[in-house]
Structure formats: C-alpha cells, structure tokens
Amino acid sequence: MGALLLAVLVTLAFIGLWTWFYPRYLEWGRRLDEELLESEMMASERIVVERVKEVVGGLRVYLTNTGEVELEVVSIYVNDTRAWDGELRLRVGESVDLEVEASHGELYRIKVCSMRGNCWEVVERGQP
Fold first, then answer.
1. Is pTM, for the whole model, over 0.85?
2. Which of 9, 53, 100, 123 could join 84 in a cystine, given CB atoms 3.0 to 4.6 angstroms apart?
3. What is the pLDDT along the chain (128 residues), one digit of tens a residue?
C-alpha cells in the first residue's frame, strides 16, 4: 500500500512539474528561434550611400538597399548631428532620394541607421 501511494505521489509530482516546465520550454525555444532569425536578418542588411548633393537648406542623399532583406531606415546623421529621422522602408534593390538638413561644408560624414540597429557610415565631398 505504501509503495502504491509513493508511486502515485511521484507521478503527480512529475505531472505537476511537467505542466509547469513544458510551456516555459516551448516559449524559450520560440524566443531563441526569433532571436536567431532577427540576427540573420540584421546580418543581411546593407545600404549604400551612392551620392550626396548639396541643395538649399541641406543635402540630398541617394540611398540604395543592396542587402538581402527589406530594411527600415530610421535616422540619418550628418557630421554627428541628426539630420533626418522617420520610418522609410526600402525593399531589396530599391533606391530613394532624401533631403536632410545640414550646414554646407567641404566634407560630410554621413551615417545611415536602420531599425534593427545597423549603421553605415561614409565620408563624402559635397557636390553642388
């Protein structure tokens, strides 16, 4: 009788532990898969600043998504000053002209940042 009671208690303890543990195990696995996918997408992002042209009140920056995934440009810095922020989605191979605020000079250090945290920096001479 004692052995049967012990077997029932061990079985109930195992069922209780499994009921608590298994959903957490599934959630952990799902989060791990999502983080792996996000890091792969982050590594597949590429953007090229093809041309910088001086315009009245700032610069016209020509960007092209040369990566393998769609990306979202969220900010552009010129000489370490935020010149543009917003949400601009670029499909693979898509290009766009953006006008950003900047004071005119000979050299511009332009940094373009994506939603996933990647930033690309180039140094360009202004072209009127």
1. no
2. 100
3. 778 888 888 888 888 888 888 889 889 989 998 988 888 888 889 999 988 888 888 899 999 999 999 999 999 999 999 999 999 999 999 999 999 988 888 889 999 999 999 999 999 886 66
